[in-house]
Amino acid sequence: MAKIVVAGSGSGGAMTANLLRRKLDADEADITVVDKSTDHYYQPSFYLIPFGYLEPDQSRDVDELLKPGVEFVHDAVTGIDPSEETVSLEDGGELEYDYLVVATGHRLDPSAMPGLVEAWEEHDDVYPFYHYEAALQMREALENFDGGTFLVTQPDTPIKCPGAPLKLTMLAEDYFRRQGIRDDVEVIMTRNAEHHFGVQPYRDKLYEIWDDRDIEFVENFSVDRVDPDAGVVYGADGEEIEYDLYAPVTPQFGQKAITEESPLADGSESGEYITIDQHTCQHDDYDNVFALGDCENAPHSKTAAAARKQAHVVSKNLTSLLNDQPMLAEYDGYAACPLLTKKGKALIAEFDYEGPISAPVESKMNWIMDVNVLPSVYWDAWMKGYDPLP
């Protein structure tokens, strides 16, 4: 009987494990998911909770998500030895595998931005909203905010859900307008790049929206440090941006168990991401290792929508490999980003390795789909391994 270990119980890991359990009988494979956390968060809620568009209770226990016949090990992965086919655990034990799926996601490291930890923990005007706790805290801060500069910054590192900072910025601008204080607020977002969104034609549509609503985008701004006492963010080139309410995106990296305690990321340029074939999701050097989501180096946008598509590819190809059949499933780079532009309006950016798929059209239906429909679909279908549109 084959031993399959899935490292990570986030969107990619949970869905892949459940898909594999549906494809493989109990006498064909043991499937084990390992993660340091027992909570699975609906991360798209993190930019909706501050405005009251979703309530805070947006998490599930991992055991509730996994199908019967999938074992859950509550422990942190500390290393992977693909030569010995073992996964090391924090408690000193290890898991042996015949096939490994790595879906460990990004590691948020606020300490990588000097001043950020102090600003968040000791001040009441800084909320790194990629952290659930900060998203909750920001809700009250917005209610008490009566004017000044609202600033959103992005780190130099790759980030999961690259559209989230734009969505938070646009929803904040709309919120201030609805609160009747828009004339008293300057809304700014920065990024260390020439554009705030990388894919056309969505980029030009967003510029049109931002110009119409007087949202400022500061290009090529690399955050160097935060001075929370002065309320200033310093750029690497000496620029300064003052703030009264600050929502930074935390720097993000590969998990140390991958980058420091395994050879799986050795082939990537930065050493932060597992090197895989961008279509099969199979590791470049170890045939029985697959990876998906934020932890690997395929050139796609790091979104749950991408992980969802990859989960189908990984489950199909791993099953084929286990049965000595050719791997025919291919991931085409699909990613989707619902860009919420204001309360009740959104446009859907869909694209793959070849380019854009959907038109950049704002609609109420897009908002309803993302805010009112998608959370239930996420929990009750996708994460359970059921997907009418794989």
Can you tell me about this structure?
- One of its GO terms (biological process) is sulfide oxidation, using sulfide:quinone oxidoreductase.
- This is FAD-dependent oxidoreductase.
- It comes from Natrialba magadii (strain ATCC 43099 / DSM 3394 / CCM 3739 / CIP 104546 / IAM 13178 / JCM 8861 / NBRC 102185 / NCIMB 2190 / MS3).
- InterPro entries: FAD/NAD-bd_sf, FAD/NAD-binding_dom, Sulphide_quinone_reductase.
- Pfam families: Pyr_redox_2.
- With 390 residues, the protein is an alpha/beta fold.
- It has two domains: 2-105 and 255-332, FAD/NAD(P)-binding domain (3-Layer(bba) Sandwich), CATH 3.50.50; 110-251, FAD/NAD(P)-binding domain, CATH 3.50.50.60.
- 27% of the residues lie in helices and 26% in strands.
- It has nine helices and 22 strands.
- It has helices spanning 11-23, 62-65, 116-122, 132-144, 164-179, 202-213, 256-259, 304-322, 364-380; strands at 2-7, 29-35, 39-41, 59-61, 70-74, 77-81, 86-89, 94-96, 99-102, 106-108, 148-153, 185-191, 216-219, 223-227, 232-235, 240-242, 245-248, 252-254, 289-291, 335-342, 345-352, 355-356.
- The strands form seven sheets. Strands 5-2-1-9-19 form a five-stranded parallel β-sheet, covered by helices on one side.
- α1 (11-23) packs parallel to α8 (304-322).
- It is globular, with a radius of gyration of 21 Å.
- The two termini are 28 Å apart.
- The model has no long low-confidence stretch (mean pLDDT 96).
